[in-house]
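Fold this complex.
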Amino acid sequence: MMPARTRGSGCYRGRMGSTPATRTSYHHGALRQALVDGAREILAERGHDQFSLNEVARRVGVSTSAPYRHFRSRDELLAAVAEQGYEVLHQCLERAATATADAGERLLCMGGAYVRFAQDHPDLFVTMFRGQPGLGPVGHESFDVLLSAVVEAQRCAVIPTAPSAELMARSVWATVHGLAVLSLRQPHERFGLDEPAEDLAARTLSALLGL
Amino acid sequence: MMPARTRGSGCYRGRMGSTPATRTSYHHGALRQALVDGAREILAERGHDQFSLNEVARRVGVSTSAPYRHFRSRDELLAAVAEQGYEVLHQCLERAATATADAGERLLCMGGAYVRFAQDHPDLFVTMFRGQPGLGPVGHESFDVLLSAVVEAQRCAVIPTAPSAELMARSVWATVHGLAVLSLRQPHERFGLDEPAEDLAARTLSALLGL
DNA sequence: GCAGGAATGTTAGAAGCATTCACATTGTCG
DNA sequence: CGACAATGTGAATGCTTCTAACATTCCTGC
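Structure:
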């Protein structure tokens, strides 16, 4: 009944908000992505410890067992969120990488983009680094973007060539990662100074790389 | 009945292992600490996602509601674990700080101690940085140890005095924290090189501080 | 020493969550 | 059009956290 079946994907006309969405057809149409989005909402609102798969289902307007048609487990949904996070991060890094022609400044921009990503999308950032260890394939792509920038900077001799590019990239990643984590945790605890985290990243990276 | 009541604390004669401990008296005697220890065991074995307060209680050999006499909630037990972590970290940092007289080398030792702490006690480390934001009071003490070392190194002019000591300490903390996190997550993924994380820390900090 | 309250532990149970299974509805393809 | 795959539902299981009423033990003031 109800001739509303806009062919699979897209026939979902619930509200974006947090009220239990109303559906017009038996099938949702785009449940998988809706679940990921709903999960992100809840993660952003209540944090990981309060996260509940049942609540995601309720919010999306579907029975609590429906998610299992798309994800084997609650953790797999969170993994999908993390994967989306790696994609967004990858885009942020690539945008930063192409923002400037100077190889040294490029590294600073990328560091800033990393911490800004963490602050703009804490739900994604926390999810990415909470689950099981290991980068997804897209995580490796993100690292490659950084690695290329380091290689290029070494080629231009704007940073020392002393440790290998991989080691140096790892140091850079670790540094900005630490900055991102701590900036999320202790907003400005103890340091009244509210230097934007990206500035702090640029300063720290400058020192680290001898720029 | 049963004249075994070695006066409160200490009358607990369960095994250290993971089998449900047997108790001889009604009262446990040192339940609070036993719960923290049990929690650490489970965290080390199964990780945070599998952590269950009920299981801690079972393992310690006590009913599932007994923990609530000592902790208002499951999270409060985890907070106690985190607090213990900050104490251990503090000791590690102080030991490293007094290991050498050279102000510059001291900073490297402390960085190494930080990542070694994370690797030796991942249960504590993860718990400390998983819960609600903010350092406990003991966390601040740990930071103060680092801050003092930076101040001293600046006084000896072995590191630049350019950014304030607080900012520099924050950079150092962030850097070693990032190294610790990533070393726990990607053991040696992608880098066949298995440079001990402490060496990586020393190298990275040397570059950061211009040592 | 002993009464009685403060600590501490127990049992039973409410409410919520993850997961599964049998079943219902719908899209799709021959 | 008719079967089959995909997708969603309802009910049930066994876990979890947490509360409430009750039991035992410690300890303190008399």
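The two ends of chain B are 68 Å apart (CA to CA).
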